[in-house]
Amino acid sequence: MNLSEAEQQADLVEATEASWSIRRILVALDASTNSRVALAAAIGLAETFKSEIEGLFIEDINLFRLAELPFSREVRFAEVGLQQLEQESIQRRLRARAAILKRELTDMAAEHDVPSSFRVIRGPVSQELLAAALESDLLALGRIGQTILRRSHLGSTARMVVERASSVVLLTTPEMVVGPIIALYDGSPTANRLLHLAATLAERSGDLRVLVWAATDDEAFERRQQAVEILTPLRVQAQFQHLSGDNPLLVLEWVNRQKGSLLVLGRSDDLPPDIFQTLLDEAGQHILVIR
Amino acid sequence: MYRSFDVESLPFTTTAELEDGLEIIGQQRAIDAIRFGIGIRHHGYNLFALGPNGVGRRTTANRFLTERAVNEPVPDDWCYVYNFEHPHKPRAHRLPPGRAIVFRDDMKKLAEELFSVLQATFTGEEYQLQKRALEEELRGTHTEALDKLREDAQTRGIALMQTPGGFAFAPLKEGGEVITPDEFMRLDQEAQKKIENEVGELQEALQRIMQQIPNLHREMQSKLKELNERVVEFTITPLMDELRQKYIDLESIIGYLDAVRKDVIENFELFTHDEEGDGRQFIGAIMGMATPDRKAPMTRYEVNVVVDNSQVHGAPVIFLDQPRYQNLVGRVEHVAQMGALVTDFSLIKPGALHQANGGYLLIDALKLLSEPFAWEGLKRAIREGEISIESLGQVYSMVSTVSLEPEPIPLSVKVVLIGERFLYYLLSSNDPEFNELFKVSADFEDEVGRSVESAQAYARVIAEVARAEKLRHFDRHAVGRIIEHGSRLADDTEKLSTHMQSMTDVLREADYWAGEMGHDSVMRDDVQKAIDMQTIRASRVHKRILEGILRDQVLVETQGEVVGQVNGLSVYSLGNYSFGSPSRITARVRLGNGKVIDIEREVNMGGPIHSKGVLILAGFLGERYAADRPLSLTATLVFEQSYGGIEGDSASSAELYALLSALSGLPVKQSLAVTGSVDQRGQVQAIGGVNEKIEGYFDVCRSRGLTGNQGVLIPASNVINLMLRQDVVDAVRDGNFHIYPVKTIDEGIALLTGVSAGEADESAAFAPDSVNGRVVARLMHFTEKQRQFGEGQRREDDSERPRPNDSETTGDKPTTE
Hints:
By secondary structure, chain A is α/β, with parallel strands linked by helices.
């Protein structure tokens, strides 16, 4: 390696570190199991990136407004009949949940030596979440909230956040899957950054699987070479697979077959929206969405 | 004095010419008993091989058992498997020899295959599609209804909202926000009423949908279960059928395989789901760490082979070296998990009874009895005819935590206990179950008759040991010396010791000395050197005692004459080494009431046999010298400078000689030492350790310088026991030392005093100058003194006693106290 190559590599490392300095992680909490998984996953990332974590519990303003209406009634889970919806009751129940989540956050953060804070705000959920996300580098939330009938599709809040949030977004599944880190590489600048992030995450497990996607076989092969070149200086062992075509189900099948713990996905113009959306909806692991 | 062995009777030059084949010398009775014991196949016919250590009990029993076992059928294998109905009671299965291992491997392979095929099936597109279709089908109507309701509400400008405990409907204003109470109140009444009605309708509709949810879940679970079971059964049937076919001849295994099939169908999730955990595990998991252990379902279908006879030829012969309870009946081990001790059937470990089942088990009786609960455990297993693995905590109800109760395994084993005689008799008389369970005793001899045949058998043993232990071979003169040593160990010129351990020690050491001397084969001198060096190595105490005598710290005279003083001889045993040493025995007599006082006994330093010997002396004195008059003496006897206990009656003749000397006033020659017990008629009887005693006195005399007058009086019946050291034999042959076999006390006292003992004439009187005559005269003197003393005392008593008529005068009644 000559001097200029060494310099270039140093620049690359510096650039990577700078672009992926995740100092602050915001985790959106409500009372569902899903948000506990989000919390655990976020702490794992905070430990890796040595970042601080903030728990955000948003009291939905619309609930309080509703409770003020004279005819407001609540249909509760596992209860027969309608219950009067009262502000006080809503307030009490939300505070109780917030207290539980705060304790969980504090305990888990202390256990992993991660600085933490917890905040309760009242307002419209989506707006508050997007506003808070502006102050953080990574926003973690469950892919779905509470539902009556469990479905795997992306919830409305999560969908909105993925579309509009400026930060990196971690979408967590209701259930934890153990396995390697999976990265989807499409050759875009986002994908280049994505590979660096995936490499950092895979440092501890040593198991990184890269799916190189392109529209054609030749292109896919070429991108595979690029991916190898990006990862080689990072000294991360990875398995590569390349795939071409625009069938989202093929990509989904490959991803799910890996039984990974985390899918690192870039939101780029190079990746067909169908593939991106299918993975968001159907992939069986946590998804880290990079812009 | 020493019976040499005629080496000409040995038909070889060195033992290299002798054939292989371990001889068991002179144990025909024990061998017959073992043959009988192992031949009879009835309950309770177990063996106890009794005899002293080192006579080859274990070797003999092991050899016979091994010879017999090799022609017996190989016992079945045993394994433990999971009990699907009662997990804490693992099931035991019997399989033909060698098949348990195969079965274990088959089950391991099956579990692995189940993993892969079920994983593939359940992650496969076909199943996923079926599952999703089912879920969608069931969920569809409700989801549809809910979506329809949500849409219906939306069209009316009402939103379905999630509350902390359920759902509610909220009227929206433009921009998607919930209408405020003020805005609501500003609406006209009709609009308000309309909203209220619409919300009311939606709430009712939502309630109806929510009430259906539990039914939906139940129905979904049930249908899903049916689907899963159908899929699992379809997937595993080819695998299970293959195994069933392989084990079709084993009914119990077929039953187990059916249970496995049922269990796999019911618990297929074990093969398809990764382990779930709480959030804390996820933290590591997201980083790809701590891959969950998939052992649990594998363990469930494992086969724990506790008895594997695949490599065994014939019936097993097991020697249990450490007969602890757990080593005997097996144990259930535990592993620590999250601070708790847990176990399962795969942690069942077999004991020696499992390994020996269908064959033979040899155990050292002393070790068995020394281990807590082991003897009870063994008896219980034999009595019940089965091996139950229970921890001691369970057996004695000390632990009440749930543990495993493995199914007992039927037991058919011949147990051979090996122990000393005292253990056999102790158990026989104190443990009623012992005689019931160990009906055959194989009593091993300590010694065998010395003959050409037994000597040749000895030679064959030497040859075998030399080969087995890679020693030099022994030439026939060396063999002759070992045979002579065998006689010495047996303390009998007509016997040979069967203590093989001592013999093999000499063989090894002789080989060492042969090596030192550069001999190609072991020669007589090498054997002699080995024996001598054994003696020297063990002789520290012997030399200290000898030194004490030579420095006159322990007083023993070896010349001159003294009244009432005799050199007795004692044997000291320290471990395997015995040696003799003289002790001074003195007797003193005075007027008294016929008592012979044993000072050792008075101070509790004399054992019961010694005391018995002394009491016999009193019997002898009374019968011979005072049959028709009171024995009016008190005699005291003592082992001078004895600071330890005295046991045995071998000094009773010496004590009697001292007593006769004291009574007769005739001095005893201190150049002679005496050993032998005596009966009430004055017969001198055989004693043990005659060789050591003679050698002990010889050593003292030689150290001071042999005078030619010194020697030892031994019982004539002990002559056959003489196997003396060569230097003693040489001294006697040259007339420098003497050995006097005596049959009676009269012979002995004549030798010791130089005066004839004297024989009683027709009137039972002895010649006055004879020893006996002098003793009688002295005793008569005592009797006369006693009589005179008695009369004088009576006169004194009479003069002090009140006369009879005195009491009559006073009218007082006589009193008795």
